[in-house]
Amino acid sequence: MKILLLLLASLLALPAQAALKIFATVPEWGALAKEIGGDRAEVFVATSGLQDPHHIQARPALIARARAAGLLVATGAELEIGWLPLVQRESGNALIQAGQPGYFEAARHVALRELPTRLDRADGDVHAGGNPHIQTDPRNFLLVGAALAARMAELSPADAATYRANWQAFAARWRAAIARWESQAAPLRGLPIAVQHKAFPYLEDWLGLKTVTVLEPKPGVEPSVAHLGKLLAQAADNPPRLVLRAAYQSPQAAEWFARAARVPVVVVPFTVGGSERARDLFGLFDDTVGRLLAALQ
Amino acid sequence: MNRIALIARAAAGALISLPAAAAEADLTALREEIAQLRQAYESRIAALETRLAAPAAKPGDAAGAAPQAAVAATRKPASEAAFNPAISLVLAGTYARLSQDPEKYAIAGFLPSGGEIGPPRRSFGLGESELGIAANIDPTLRGRLTFALAPEGGATVEEAFIQTLGLGHGATLKAGRFLSGIGYLNGQHAHAWDFADAPLAYQAMLGGRLKNDGVQLKWLAPTDLLVELGAEAASGGAFPSTDRNRNGATLGALFAHVGGDVGLSHSWRTGLSLLGTAPRDRQYEDADSAGVPVTNAFSGRSRTWIADFVWKWAPAGNASVRNLIVQGEYFQRRETGSLAFDVTGANRADAYAARQSGFYAQTVYQFMPHWRVGYRYDRLDAGTVSFGSTLNPADFPLLAAYKPQRNTVMADYSPSEYSRWRLQLARDQSRPQATDNQFWLQYVVSLGAHGAHAF
After folding, report:
1. A119: in domain
2. Phi/psi of residue A176, each to 5°?
3. What is the residue range of B19's domain?
4. Which CATH number goes with the domain that contains A285?
5. B220–chain A Cβ distance below 8 A for any pair
6. How does pLDDT run across B334-383, given as a tens digit for each residue?
7. Domain count, chain B
8. By the CB < 8 Å criterion, does A92 face chain B?
9. pLDDT, average across residues A204-219
10. Which residues of B touch A183 (CB under 8 A)?
11. Which end of chain B has the least Cβ crowding within 10 Å, N or C?
12. What stretches of A185-280 show up as alpha helix (H) in DSSP?
């Protein structure tokens, strides 16, 4: 009886309005939502930094979490096309369906690169909407974050002031950090690199890196040794200084190429949780810039 | 001269000033209008600026990004085709080598389910092609149609249903023809299976799989653990029910699924389903004790319980390199009623009761990107079958007690997400007289829009 009363009391003691429940598809938007929401947002992140964001399954746990969400934050641009539509439909949650205010796509707020001029599966895993890996350029977080803060304020008006204040504080720190990273990364400008998957056009644009070799013959297709050998021969005139791959990708191809070309492999975290240091958004870029610079020495 | 000039000037001045006064009034109106417009624009710009919440560090980026995004969104030309539904096509083909004649295939001990069971035809064969068309109908509904195109010609409607999009409170309503939510494998399309054919339990108990013409209501509990409850009412028609030509539902199903994650690397789902129906005059072919072909029929109640379980492992949740799937389902069916012997001749009916069971357990391991191997074990138990005193058990050779079993191994290679090559070997002991050694080579490819696969 006492326990029952205690339970009842604890139920009554709940705040009048619960924090906004956010379902983020990938860690970077989860981290951003946490920065904006503070303690007025309850953020669930569907994937970890070591998972291939192209190949996620509509796991039971994701459907259960999506059912309770008030806001679904996705990358969009078809990154989550293999699982998110199913999670949305199965969730039975009217708030997070496409077209509702509770559905937010980050890629809509950024100008996408690599828009394909031709759509054919013979070209591999082509994203029809453009390259969705926008989180490798920190400047994109300013655009996405501003829109996300506005959306969160719209969905939870009582917390609007908190979100705005958190966002402004974060944006100020973020701008300072961008300036710091840019000055640190100045030696990387114009650096020729090889990438495993075309996952870094935004990072390249930001730091002025030049991709001279892409290991995958087609997006999402693993390179064969013969193909790597051909690339190696082609790279003789303009050799890359390092091979860049994301933490979630299988290491073999990058390591083989790097050994043969006698250059280091740089494994960047790609998103929050992709490495020990990338615990939050600041750590993500501290680590990314740090690892790239370390490879120059 | 001067005076004249003055008068002229005055007159001219008056002439000019008259319209000038009118123009002055117009101008003020215009100015006011412009001021209003400017105000409206300024407030809109201010609103947009607050939305962007002062991205002062890179104003160029913000200003440049928004219009570019807008341009990208509006670039598509307006056309009637813009709202065409997504079309997906699955093509499949097999080469089969079987040591027994597939025409004579039967699962001993069980009333034939009459569905698409057994191995494919020998030699080269076209599998079932599948054409799917799906789109959102409006903000509240989604529709899907799947045609199964049989190799011998003709299209059957595999699925044709509408489904609510976020009815709210975790509820989803489906109506039309749909794959039932019972069990685990039942709701999956054949092209998504890990083996080339359905488990024996599905073939014997559900005629391959259960498709319903009816309604389905599903509800998700508001918990972090997946708790899904569902109920279906359907008209019946295919095995284990029959068409009853009546107003009420002939088939009902209930199911509950629970699932979640354990750490980053493990996820699981388990469930319990109940399927109840009351078939009338469900006919099947057999031979009597003298070996003369006869048609028998069952009428009564049929109730099937299904317990299912699936567990998936992938290191750190990254399934693209290595992953393991373990799944199994257990079926138990009780049928009571009357069995009519030789409906076109003697037509002797008496009591019949059967309690039968079966299960399969399988595991599939992806040991490197694109390559998987798997093993499946099937076992059925014809259980206890009792006949009324006027029926001679020897007249029902198909129902003679037997425990069919099958061992299957497979290896598949998927060069991309859209194509798969599979080699499958099976030792099928569905019939007591003969062991069927089966060799399959299969391709399954998918073209066009490809929807997400269920867990």
Report:
1. no
2. -65, -40
3. 1-52
4. 3.40.50.1980
5. yes
6. 999 999 999 998 888 999 999 999 999 999 999 988 999 999 999 999 99
7. 2
8. yes
9. 91
10. none
11. N
12. 201-207, 225-234, 252-261
User: Which pair of structure tokens corresponds to residue B198?
Assistant: 């359905």
Distances (CA, A) of B27 to A84, B14, B22: 57, 20, 9
Q: What is the pLDDT of chain A when averaged over all its residues?
A: 90
| The pLDDT of residue B10 is above 80 | no
Give the span between the Cα atoms of B383 and B194, in whole angstroms. Answer: 28
Provide φ and ψ at B10, rounded to 5°.
-60, -45
Three-state secondary structure call for residue A19 = coil
Tell me the pLDDT tens digit for each residue of B133-185. 999 998 889 999 999 998 888 889 999 999 998 788 899 999 999 999 999 99
Q: In this complex, which of A68, A88, A92 lies closest to B167 when CB atoms are compared?
A: A92
Q: Is A124 on the interface with B (CB under 8 A)?
A: yes
Question: CB contacts < 8 Å between A and B, how many?
Answer: 184
Mean pLDDT value of segment B255-272:
96
Using a CB-CB cut-off of 8 Å, the residues of chain B touching A60 are 226, 257-261, 267-269, 455
In 3-state terms chain A splits into helix, strand, coil percentages (rounded to 5) of 50, 10, 40
| A 45-64: CB under 8 A from B | 47-48, 50-52, 54-55, 57-61, 63-64
Instruction: State which residues form the domain around A133.
Output: 18-114+125-180
Q: Does the distance separating the beta carbons of A64 and B260 come in below 8 Å? A: yes
Instruction: Mutation target for A interface from B309, B318, B414, B418: give the one with most A CBs within 10 A.
Output: B318
